[in-house]
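Limitations

Structures in this collection are predictions, not experimental determinations, and the ligand pose is part of the prediction. Treat each record accordingly. The example that follows, with magnesium ion as the small molecule, is included so readers can see exactly what is and is not provided: the inputs are given verbatim, and the output is the predicted complex.
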Amino acid sequence: MTTTTIERTRHAALIGGESVDPGMTFDDVDPATGEVIAEVARCGPPEIDAAVRAARGAQPAWAERSAADRGGVLRRIADAIRAAAEELARLETLDTGKPLAQARADVAVAARYFDFYAGTIEAFYGDTVPLGSEFFVVIEREPHGVTGHIIPWNYPAQMVGRTIAPALATGNCCVLKPAEEAQLTPLRIGWLALEAGLPAGAFNVVTGFGEEAGAALSSHPGIDHLSFTGSTEVGRLIGKAAAENIVPVTVELGGKSANIVLADADLDRAVPVITRSIIQNAGQTCSAGARLLVEQSLHERIRDEVAERFRGLTVGPGLDDPDLGPLISARQRDRVAALVDTGRSEATLVTGGAAPDGAGLTGGFFFEPTLFDDVPPEATIAREEIFGPVLVMTPFSDVDEAAELADGTDYGLVAGIWTRDVSAAHRLARRVRAGQVFVNGYGAGGGIELPFGGWKNSGHGREKGYEALHSYTRTKAIAISL
Ligand code: NAI
Ligand code: MG
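Predicted complex:
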């Protein structure tokens, strides 16, 4: 295994273009070793307030610039991220535990978000309304003002691109609170953006605990729009805070997404993608393919093929670039282990089910790829988001049953459909309640061009794609009587 000597670093918050140290810090842990790698500013209400003021101060001038001008700055941020790509990828791996190849891909995607919104903002127009010859009516799209962003630890670099780039493109200024488990790349991208020419105060990064800094941000009266990605439990709190201040909110809250394999599917194509959709990021992906619904005739074959693939996967420190890195924290690993233990009495464990005991893995938060078969739809492991490398498999006998099973959880984020029958695929895609449906493919976490968001407990509102430009603006109808 790779031994890295890590110098403990101390990180202040980025507020108004300045480094702000509140005097208190908390530890940031390397999930591969359990060792403290950094001390990060523990901010609270005063720092959140300072960041909101800084954003408020910067916002009018930023919004007054032309779309092309703002887009130019976003392009320079994308270039700066690409220029620092290797440094950022290593930082992301160190902080989150993810395999280096995944971290490199994530950093490339983060840059792409800034490019994508730099381009689309120039083609984002308002409308005119033909109210008759006596009127001239335009619908302008205006930024909300100051936007608050609370992001999780699973894809910190990507999340900065996904949520900050469209907010800035449309003329908002932002306050971001990263998760307490992973702040290093959001902070670094914040500084890179400043160096790339983003005005001070336009993008503030305030680190701290959810109940302190996060709660202060979501309830701050100076916030005009909230974007949250994380657990359903905290999503409810964010929704309440938004209701209190009457501000729009986008909540993306995870899922229990299913791959549905019909009898005529091309299994050579399906099995590798299905495997990847749950082991990517060690299963810590909101849109992970966490359930596998298979038509009866394929049941044994798919189970055996997936199990064989799972047994062949490598687990290790992210810097060694294995198939699976560690989970983010001891808490997350214990949560996964407890759900797997519940699963043992609910279904048949095919492979995995424990922490691997390989050399050099003892300090980290590793968990084996795990497959359960014959999982009844009412089982806990079939309904709850596990957020680990755990796939639950359930056979079905016809398409109606498949549709019912696919929709049979409280979540609705993504679905995958595997069949050679175009009509069956399309009919099923229409029936499933999910923000994204993939046919003969599965895009966990990817696809910046595709609008993304949930149904039911997976949340509401959309990010990604052109649609995010609508989310980060509101309309103003200006009617002139001639
Ligand atoms: P979490 O919802 O507590 O954390 C997400 C973010 O919310 C973090 O930045 C955190 O600091 C912040 N936060 C926490 N409490 C807050 C509060 N009272 N007010 C404002 N902000 C607050 O998620 P956690 O505990 O890290 O993970 C628990 C489970 O949530 C996971 O096992 C998984 O099932 C789900 N989850 C889903 C994610 C997704 O991508 N949709 C990402 C992370 C977790
Ligand atoms: Mg960390």
